[in-house]
Amino acid sequence: MKKVLTFLIMVVLAFTAVFFGACSDKTPDAISSNYKNLAEGGSFVSDEGGAGDSAVFDFGKKVLINTVVLKEKGSNVTSFEIYADGNETPVYGNDYVDGYRYCTFAPTETSKLTIKVLTSDGKWQFADLEAYLIIKEAEDFRVMSYIYADTAFTITQKQKEIAGCVTQFNVFGCTYFDAKGEIVFVDYDINGETYDGEQVLKGAVENLKEINPSASIVVTLLANRDFGDGMTTTERHNSAMDKYADKLTANILKLLDDFGFDGVSFDYEYPEKIKDFNVFADYIKKLDAALGKDRILTAAISDWCIRTFGYSVKDLEPLDSIEVMSYDMFDERGNHSTFYNSCYSILKNFEKKGIDLSKVNLGIPFYSRPVNEDTFWGNYYDVAAQLSPFENAVVQEYTDLDGVKHPALSNYYNGRQMVYDKTRYAIDCGAGGVMIWHFGCDSVDPELSLLNQINAAVKGTYTIQ
Questions:
Q1: For the chain, first and last CA: distance in Å?
Q2: I need a surface site. Which of 41, 356, 406, 419 has the fewest CB within 10 A?
Q3: Bridge partners of 363?
Q4: Strand partners of residue 73
Q5: pLDDT at residue 20, as a whole number
Q6: Could you give all domains of the chain from N- to C-terminal order, each with its CATH number?
Q7: Residue 307 has pLDDT above 70, yes or no
Q8: Is the model's pLDDT at 338 over the cut of 50?
């Protein structure tokens, strides 16, 4: 009987943890300790309902706010808008609330907030609401963008105009290393004309220096192409970074000198075994010593890479910054980069691991993935005009990597408000920067550009219309 009772208690506790887990999601100390929660003393007049219903929060006084934190019991809200003092125009709107949603908007004076739930998967209930006034320009905040070498080589005037806020370009796509530590360049076919890979890389660096002289320019090295060795990507990394480590380092240093790069990054998504993690950790320690203090060393890693059998805090110390690939992280609905899963939880996990958030660049996708996790990556610029400022999803037909055409299906992007929210949250909670994958996906329309929203968030202004 005792065993049965114990089991039942464990089941109840597990259910409670899942259902009410949202209540345990806390605002980081960097925010709650530095800014007064202006919702203290206020309360919900109504906090539950279904699709089309509203929750009302009464502050009990006039407050000036530009940031609201919403927490939901469960995860049923699928889209909502926030109205101040019964105004007909919302100050904010977006999709899911989940356990923690950071909502940023223009400074607004109000005594009540109405949260209208437009759509939901069923009955919803809010667990908590916080409100802040956070107005500050971010200092030394990194805006790091990956950019294809051929995009930089053929960059247009309109693309140049949205590139001003980027503080670091990671140039990728034409420079690889093989199993023996040799650097390999790939050629390009541009408008029917063949260009040597080295020519494209030199032109790319020259263009980026001209566009944004203050930005750092880093070369991203990949080992995910088989140039005849028959190895897997992981085997190739282990060979080059272990047996041929000295040769790889010498070739990297020469590459930086020859092309005028400020540093090197590794897009290393492939470690599987403890050996793989150890080889990479040992190599970047040696490479960091060879690079010296004036050159940049970064790497893109996934959230799962810092779990129990992944990298330790010490392993990552040689990196000047860590680019977190917080996208392609499909939730139960099939959305690959929501706020809760791919911003709040990611930064929470890195901080819990003991990693200094000031070294972390939060990844923001400028592309979509279908909700069925298919092999399709849609460019934001193709749908930018279709997305309202508060939307992130577009139902669209697509063709996968195998050339198979698919009927219309929801594709999840990060729209303008989402990008502003993620950037602002990264700033406010103490992260060092954001990382964009990738530059060529953005719209060049100034009103629709996601880079312009990042720039506005960094400056502490709000320009979404």
A1: 63
A2: 41
A3: 435
A4: 125
A5: 40
A6: 16-132 (2.60.120.260), 142-459 (3.20.20.80)
A7: yes
A8: yes
